[in-house]
């Protein structure tokens, strides 16, 4: 009975996994077949729908020999800098809001919580004007800045910091440690899972950003991958082969990161709910 | 381990952030003209190269924005007074809205030169608003009926060889042939290339004498429930209801249907020649597009113009580039080197037609059809500041009809919605 139940559960799990993987598989296969074959086997469904019967690497080669290579490098640079600077700023802000008692602390916290409820698209145009006044168009700085102060990341880290026993902080301060020492040597080392979660939030925001890079950095040297993919579609023609090839690579990077950090992420999710 | 990585990496942040500032402060000896448009880089590369060779003191920097986002980019950048855009591509139906909002300068001073280079009044109208010219016309578009010779032969249908524009098929005749082709094995009888898009479907209503769907002062009153609109919409709906044309296919997928031999007749434009010519084994011909019996032949037209931003940082250099690309034959021809659309510059068109004439032995007299339609049957989209709102609603209406929605309630709902939306614009 138990064996049967396990088999059913396993079968259902595998079936679900296949159903989720199918669209991505079709994208991967479409990137590896001639352009004219992409929609040829959609109806009726056949082996050709899910297997590249006329295998070709033509689109992958074309993709990497064009401007997409620079665009994905730009995305990696912008995302990496956003994560590093963003973690520094968000964790410091969260530490101040969680540990340091100062007048108006709760009001500042509420403003930050509300800030992540406002859709970014709503503030993109006025923010663009500000950045333009600062002469930050077509710069990495302009691309990175809106991503580093993330209200959700601050919220997450603050909640985690609140769960760290205050006795640790008090003991350190009695021994002569200052606020920065407490933050750097006690709170950050104890908060690695939460930092990973915050980093993933910052990563996703920047990796999938489209409207902001389109506005602030349309010059070819600063184009990011999401914008570069959209440009394979023009008014009269859509180059699905290149779109699928690019989508494959742009998905691989988050996939590798999420797989690599999944333990840290799971630990974070589990421990943010606990009191100890 | 993660924390150590974080700490080490923090030291490179300052350097990473400082780098772009160094790049952007590089000394520039040339005047820079920033050019914003929707086409792929390679489309404008020949004209930019030719212009820079003749004007070494000017550096044209091309910024491509996806087609769907170009108007938003123009509104947010040019509309906000951003001087970092000197030149931009303007979709001609949007000229009235852009001009009325101050995004396009008055180019009346150049009227004589524009009219000399671009003598077709339809093309001049495409860049005008309230009697004034606001941009430089660059390209135009027209329509052809493509047919798959193999599918026609399989059905025993004689090729609709174009002998004269007066002998063109009626829609009634075409759909009979399309059904015959389907009976003989073709998956689909017919499809529009730009399904559900007002751009291509406006001609149906104009051909039936139903009008463009807008009326009144400034074309700001919807007129969708007249008899002609109801009948033509029912015809469009039945095309899909009867299974002659496919549902569930987007405009971007229709080329592939024709290339893969799945459709017998295809209503497209010169922009499709590129992919059709690359497709191995595709045996096709072209003829004049059909019209409704008792009505007039009408073809969709309009394309892109070049405009100088009223806030351009370098307006004089921008003007030199725009005039080169539109008013000189060599510049206008260079804009079509990697682009499938005809130039509106008359001298450049004569040279462009030689290139398209090379297709004649294979597909039929495409260039004669294009020339005839541009000069005799072309009707532009309505010149109104409300066009964007109108087009958005209409594209949805066509999509609903294709999916089987009832004609009269659909048109009535659209008319009510547009009456309210256009009243606000008025």
Automatic annotation (TrEMBL), chain A:
Gene3D superfamilies, A to Z: MetI-like (1.10.3720.10)
Topology of this chain in the membrane: Multi-pass membrane protein
GO biological process, one term: transmembrane transport
Domain ABC transmembrane type-1: 72-261
CC terms in the record's Gene Ontology section: plasma membrane
Entry-linked PROSITE patterns: ABC_TM1
Transmembrane segments: 72-100, 107-128, 140-161, 182-205, 240-261
Membrane keyword on record: yes
Localization in the cell: Cell inner membrane; Cell membrane
InterPro entries: MetI-like, MetI-like_sf
Keywords for this protein: Cell inner membrane, Cell membrane, Membrane, Transmembrane, Transmembrane helix, Transport
UniProt key word Oxidoreductase: no
Quaternary data: The complex is composed of two ATP-binding proteins (UgpC), two transmembrane proteins (UgpA and UgpE) and a solute-binding protein (UgpB).
Family to which the UniProt record says this protein belongs: Belongs to the binding-protein-dependent transport system permease family.
Function noted in UniProt: Part of the ABC transporter complex UgpBAEC involved in sn-glycerol-3-phosphate (G3P) import. Probably responsible for the translocation of the substrate across the membrane.
Protein name: sn-glycerol-3-phosphate transport system permease protein UgpE
TrEMBL record, chain B:
Domain of life, source organism: Bacteria
One Pfam family here: SBP_bac_8
GO molecular function (one): maltose binding
GO cellular component: ATP-binding cassette (ABC) transporter complex, substrate-binding subunit-containing
Lineage per the UniProt record: Bacteria, Pseudomonadati, Pseudomonadota, Alphaproteobacteria, Hyphomicrobiales
UniProt KW keywords: Periplasm, Signal, Transport
Name used for this protein in its record: Sugar ABC transporter substrate-binding protein
GO biological-process terms attached to the record: maltodextrin transmembrane transport; maltose transport
Residues spanning the signal sequence: 1-29
Protein family membership: Belongs to the bacterial solute-binding protein 1 family.
Keyword presence, Signal: yes
């Amino acid at each position: 009975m138990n064996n049967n139940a396990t088999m059913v559960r396993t079968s259902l799990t595998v079936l679900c996994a296949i159903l989720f993987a199918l669209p991505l598989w079709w994208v991967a296969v479409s990137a590896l077949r001639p352009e004219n074959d992409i929609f040829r086997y959609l109806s009726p469904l056949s082996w050709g729908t899910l297997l590249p019967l006329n295998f070709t690497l033509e689109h992958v080669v074309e993709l990497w020999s064009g401007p997409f290579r620079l665009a994905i490098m730009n995305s990696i640079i912008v995302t990496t800098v956003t994560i590093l600077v963003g973690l520094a700023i968000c964790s410091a802000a969260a530490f101040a809001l969680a540990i340091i008692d100062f007048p108006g602390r709760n009001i500042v916290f509420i403003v930050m919580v509300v800030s992540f409820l406002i859709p970014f698209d709503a503030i993109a145009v006025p923010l663009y004007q500000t950045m333009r006044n600062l002469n930050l168009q077509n710069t990495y700085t302009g691309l990175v800045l809106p991503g580093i102060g993330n209200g959700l990341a601050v919220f997450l880290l603050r909640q985690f910091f609140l769960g760290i026993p205050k006795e640790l902080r008090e003991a350190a301060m009695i021994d002569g440690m200052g606020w920065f020492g407490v933050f750097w040597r006690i709170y950050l080392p104890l908060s690695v899972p939460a930092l990973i979660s915050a980093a993933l939030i910052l990563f996703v925001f920047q990796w999938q950003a489209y409207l902001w890079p389109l506005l602030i950095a349309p010059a070819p040297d600063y184009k990011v991958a999401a914008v570069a993919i959209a440009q394979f579609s023009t008014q009269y023609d859509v180059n699905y082969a290149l779109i699928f090839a690019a989508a494959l690579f742009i998905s691989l990077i988050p996939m590798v990161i999420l797989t690599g950090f999944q333990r840290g992420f799971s630990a974070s999710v589990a421990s943010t709910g606990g009191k100890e | 381990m993660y924390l150590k990585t974080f700490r080490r990496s923090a030291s490179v942040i300052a350097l990473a952030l400082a780098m772009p500032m160094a790049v952007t402060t590089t000394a520039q000896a040339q005047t820079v003209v920033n050019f914003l448009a929707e086409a792929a880089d390679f489309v404008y590369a020949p004209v930019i190269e030719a212009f820079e060779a003749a004007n070494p003191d000017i550096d044209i920097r091309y910024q491509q924005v996806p087609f769907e986002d170009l108007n938003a980019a123009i509104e947010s950048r040019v509309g906000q007074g951003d001087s970092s855009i000197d030149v931009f591509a303007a979709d001609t139906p949007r000229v009235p809205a852009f001009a009325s909002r101050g995004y396009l300068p008055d180019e009346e001073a150049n009227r004589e030169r524009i009219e000399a280079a671009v003598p077709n009044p339809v093309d001049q109208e495409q860049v005008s608003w309230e009697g004034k010219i606001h941009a430089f016309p660059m390209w135009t578009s027209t329509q052809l009926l493509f047919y798959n010779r193999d599918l026609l032969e399989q059905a025993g249908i004689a090729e609709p060889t174009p002998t004269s524009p007066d002998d063109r098929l009626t829609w009634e005749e075409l759909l009979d042939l399309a059904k015959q082709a389907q009976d003989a094995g073709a998956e689909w009888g017919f499809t529009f290339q730009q399904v559900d898009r007002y751009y291509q479907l406006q001609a149906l209503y104009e051909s039936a004498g139903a009008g463009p769907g807008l009326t009144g002062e400034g074309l700001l009153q919807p007129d969708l429930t007249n008899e002609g609109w109801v009948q033509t919409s029912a015809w469009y709906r039945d095309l899909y209801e009867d299974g002659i044309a496919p549902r569930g296919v987007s405009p971007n997928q229709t080329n592939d249907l024709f290339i893969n031999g799945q459709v017998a007749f295809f209503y497209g434009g010169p922009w499709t020649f590129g992919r059709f010519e690359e497709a191995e084994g595709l045996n096709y011909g072209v003829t004049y597009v059909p019209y409704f019996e008792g009505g007039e032949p009408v073809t969709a037209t309009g394309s892109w113009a070049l405009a100088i931003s009223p806030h351009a940082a370098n307006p004089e250099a921008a003007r030199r580039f725009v005039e080169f690309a539109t008013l000189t034959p060599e510049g206008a021809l260079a804009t079509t080197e990697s682009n499938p659309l005809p130039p509106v510059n008359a001298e450049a068109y004569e040279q462009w037609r030689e290139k398209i004439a090379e297709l004649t032995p294979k597909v039929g007299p495409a260039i004669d059809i294009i020339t005839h339609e541009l000069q005799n049957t072309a009707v532009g989209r309505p010149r109104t500041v409300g066009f964007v709102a109108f087009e958005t609603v209409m594209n949805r209406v066509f999509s609903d009809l294709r999916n089987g929605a009832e004609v009269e309630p659909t048109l009535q709902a659209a008319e009510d919605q547009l009456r309210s939306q256009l009243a606000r614009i008025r």
